[in-house]
UniProtKB/TrEMBL annotation:
SUPFAM superfamilies: alpha/beta-Hydrolases. One of its GO terms (molecular function) is hydrolase activity. This is Alpha/beta hydrolase. The keyword Nucleotidyltransferase does not apply. Pfam families: Abhydrolase_6.
């Protein structure tokens, strides 16, 4: 299949890495797109934006950014790169200038928050035996187990860092809401989604890890966005 002139860069969120996109990458590749999945350090919002921009730099031609969860804050910053032509948010933060993720989470209580704990170096973890119920309650036991035991912690600073002017104010965007999300409340996702005035909003009866539990629907949204940029 002839490769299309667009690279789709997938940006993971907290407590995960680029392999969180494993259920989506094959379908995007089969559709003819060049796909890359970033590996961010999760050490600060700026660190992660910079690492994502490094991957954008390495691509030829146009780039569509897709962010899950915390990755939405990353693409909102990295989207200012001149190669980026669109943004897709998957159960993701979409901060405005002056927002922090902590302030967005502070709007209403999220049940999964009770499972988060810090280590001695300021990194945040999800309790291993509560990971499935907090993060991916609609995944099967084995997939949830792997996601739990391979989790990548995020530094608490990422939730305190204040976002700059977001790229979604100048680029077309798409948003997927997870109606059963226990990490970012669905109502908060809805508020952020509507603020974007996106090309399309879809709502799925999914937990936070919709990129794994509802990969077909998420893939279709990404493909729709890719075809229109």
């Amino acid at each position: 299949m002839e490769q299309k002139d667009l690279t789709i860069i997938l940006v993971h969120g907290a407590w995960g890495d680029g392999s969180h996109w494993q259920y989506i990458i094959p379908s995007l590749t089969k559709a003819g797109y060049k796909v890359r999945s970033v590996q961010n350090p999760l050490t600060s919002l700026q660190d992660d934006i910079d690492k994502t921009k490094d991957l954008i730099d390495a691509q030829d031609g146009k780039v569509l950014l897709v962010g899950h969860s915390y990755g939405g804050a990353v693409i909102s910053g990295a989207g200012h790169h001149d190669k980026v032509v669109g943004l897709v948010y998957i159960a993701a933060f979409a901060p405005d200038a002056g927002d922090s993720l902590g302030s967005l989470l502070g709007r209403r209580e999220s049940p999964g928050g009770a499972s988060i704990y810090p280590d001695s170096k300021g990194f945040l973890w999800i309790k291993y035996d509560e990971f499935k119920s907090a993060f991916c309650q609609d995944l099967d036991e084995e997939k949830a187990l792997v996601m739990s035991l391979s989790q990548k912690p995020i530094h608490g600073q990422c939730f305190g860092d204040v976002a700059g002017e977001p790229a979604w104010k100048k680029l077309p965007s798409w948003y997927q809401i997870s109606l059963q999300d226990r990490m970012i409340p669905a109502e908060t996702e809805k508020e952020m989604a509507e603020r974007l005035e996106p090309k399309k909003i879809i709502s799925l009866d999914a937990g936070h890890a919709s990129l794994a539990s509802h990969s077909e629907e998420v893939t279709q949204l990404i493909l729709e966005a890719a075809a229109s940029v």
